[in-house]
Amino acid sequence: MDVKELRDQNVSALNETLMTLLKEHFELRMQHKSAQLDDASKLRKIKRSIAQVKTIIKEKQV
Fold first, then answer.
1. How confident is the model at residue 12 (pLDDT cuts 50, 70, 90)?
2. pTM recorded for the entire structure
3. Residue-range domain boundaries for the chain
């Protein structure tokens, strides 16, 4: 996801995106713990995306 695309979304769409990312992060963590995750860098990318979405939500609420 591009930051410009995220900034164009409204808060409710951002919340939906956030929930999707959190679910995906949970699934990746479970795969990592059970040694089924091939690319561990996906965890870092998802965490970064979650932080970006949360930041944009906070900016829009102010």
1. very high
2. 0.90
3. 3-61
Distant-in-sequence, close-in-space partners of 32: CB < 8 Å, separation ≥ 6? 40, 43
Mean pLDDT of the 2-25 span: 95
Residue 53 class from Cβ within 10 Å (0-12 exposed, 13-18 middle, 19+ buried)?
Answer: buried
Within 8 A by CB and 6+ apart from 47, the residues are 25
**Rounded to whole angstroms, how far apart are CA atoms 21 and 28?**
10
Angle at 4 between CA 61 and CA 59, to 5 degrees: 15
How is domain 3-61 classified at the CATH fold level?
Helix Hairpins (1.10.287)
